[in-house]
Structures
1.
Amino acid sequence: MFWFLAGVEEQLPELLEDERGWTGVDVDYHPPRVERLWRQLGDIRVYLHRIHYCDPGEALFHPHPWPSAMKVLKGQYKMAVGYGGGDTPPPVAARLLLGPGSEYEMTNQDAWHYVRPTEEGGTVLTLMVTGLPWKLKRWVPKSEAPLKPLSDVARSYMFTEFRFHYPRNGS
């Protein structure tokens, strides 16, 4: 997945120019709140995240329905990692502190994690790429209600921030 992440980073300055190609959602059904822009590139989905602070013990410990790779661009978060099947959170196996430039991948369907920004009132910006969903369906937590669209103000802020991190040549 790191290879896909690097490839998307090369394309991101151009991809950010076409704002209509991105879908925005406000993931607010469980802390931490995540403002998300995403778009499909063949079998890869690209996500831009702005993750909001939440109090210790509130962050959602969850598996992903697909392999993924992430890069922290701005801010810092604590991440816990665990491993286990089913829908019961496994024990935490490791805790990490990740800041700008940190990258990691989750390549097993039974890997779990949570992320929690460390600065009270602050946010963290991340880039995430995902592959095709696991062949065996994987339980993942979901909102009972449809996710709300991202506000125009949040969209504008995110495009500005991500363009700062991935400027076009000559910009």
2.
Amino acid sequence: MSPSTRFSSPAVRAGLVAIVVALGVVTKTVVDVVRAAPIPDVPASTSMNVAQLTRGPMPPPADIQSAVENDLFSPDRSAPSTPYRMPGERDASDEPVVEPVKPAVLGTAVATDGRNFATMQLGDERPVLVHVGDKIGEWTVKSIGRGKVVLVTAAGARADLTVPKPGT
């Protein structure tokens, strides 16, 4: 077989052209990677790592000198006049908060369009129909569900009331 007959077939010629094109694409890709533009420098003041982003600001430095001056184990130390209380914790001298009388839930109705209502009775008064947002005594109706009504007061007290079981 002579060299001219080896390349005379159209399939062989197409294969050779494909190889030459592939070698050209590979060469161009390698050249582009080697000649990549340098990455610009980022100023040091703006670079942060993930730990700095999630941690938040640094707390102020501890005042060790005042801790040493107020020796925790000094025999001259005495207990404070009032005990420490957690934020939101009540003091014994605070007057107790009197919760208003809770109404009784006689029944609820749940509608598909969201216009739920409940029948409630406050003390010996006659029963009334209430919807979300209505007031009964000092309570405001927050939500009405199947057999359950949630009430809140202006002071923030919350009451989850349910319809009593028959015979109780």
